[in-house]
Amino acid sequence: MKYLLTIFLLSAFIFSCQTTETGPWADFKKCATNNCVKEAVAVKDAFLKDPKKLLTEFQKTYEKGDDHVIGWLYIIRDSVLVNSKMGTVAQRFDMQQALIANARSFENDPKLGETAKTIVGELELIAIASELEDDVVEPSSDPVTGTYTYDLGGDKGNGELLVSQTAFDKFKFKLSVVGSAPAYNQGMMEGEATLDQNTATFSLKEYGGECNLEFNWTAQGVIIKTLKGDDAACGFGHNVTADGTYQRKNFNDPFLSKTDAKMAGMLLGEWQSADDPKASLKIADGQYTDMYEGEGPVPVMRYIYYPVCPNDCNPTAKMPCLKIIGQDDVCYAIVKADGKVLELSQIGGTGNTNKYVKK
Questions:
Q1: How far apart are CA 40 and CA 28, in angstroms?
Q2: Of these four, 46, 57, 243, 265, which has the most CB atoms within 10 Å of its CB?
Q3: What SS3 class is residue 335?
Q4: CATH code 2.40.128.20 for 258-358
């Protein structure tokens, strides 16, 4: 009996060792943060070498109800395929096409077809091909949200510009200007404009004529220039113009409520990852910088704070979130932000919550 028990225990031990997951996919699933670029690249290499094996592993993970496959695709997209540091446009395009081709060959497979179609669908959305045609406009990292003022001094006139970026290429604004003494005539304008890198044009035809203003962001602030129209066409008082250089006063979103502005303020600062000593995050001056020790220069991107996640942060959630503006936007649900601890979860990512503490 003792001999049989020993054999049984030994067999169970051997079986458990044989069924323990190993390899690139297992390593990626164990990674607890969104900085798993090395692990994601290893999975990519394995998929290019043996797509059937990896698709089988993907399928098993999917059947368990986990979303690691989507998480892997997001990291491959944001950190590899659209990252200029990972190769030339042509090299990254060839990599994208190789991944698609390997997945597409299994689209009609009765067991692996759905997973293969998911991979093809996600990868085909990445617009690397248009980069080859120079059609992609790289978003500027310069923040536009904030309050700007100008003052000519000596009672010669002043103005204030409130700006809130609402999307990758959109912002809303409210402009108020005051003319010179002794009349101090005033003018007000508000609306939404399309942003092309650091320049935008706003047109108005409400006052019997056409008024065109140009907004140009520079290191000095925002230069506003009237391209067409006089004071009347722009809805301003006599001899009032919006032209001038508006100096930045702050990076805060002037359109937020006091409660939301307080929450947005809790995000600011330098944050150390609680899970990975090499990972850190900086949110300041309208910019978002995700850093990882040893990986060289990192991109600095604009961000938008939303009191409630917008619909394009799909799948959306009825909670505050950050949208990081890059060639492909990434949304993070704000799980916790109290000024000391920050917890972010990438929407559509691995499902993990990244925890940070204030430096």
A1: 6
A2: 57
A3: strand
A4: no
Cis, bond preceding 307 (omega within 30 deg of 0): no
CA distance 259 to 305: 13
Residues 6+ apart with CB under 8 A from 335: 319, 343, 344, 345, 353
- By C-alpha distance, which of 214, 216, 212, 213 is closest to 197? 216
Quick: pLDDT tens for 20-77: 678 889 988 887 555 688 888 999 999 999 999 999 998 888 788 777 888 888 888 8
Cβ–Cβ under 8 Å, residues 289 and 268 = no
Q: Say which amino acid occupies 97.
A: Q
Strand partners, 149: 160, 247
The bridge status of strand 221-228 relative to strand 170-178 is unpaired
Beta-carbon contacts of 186 under 8 Å, excluding residues fewer than 6 positions away, are 176, 177, 178, 179, 236, 237, 240
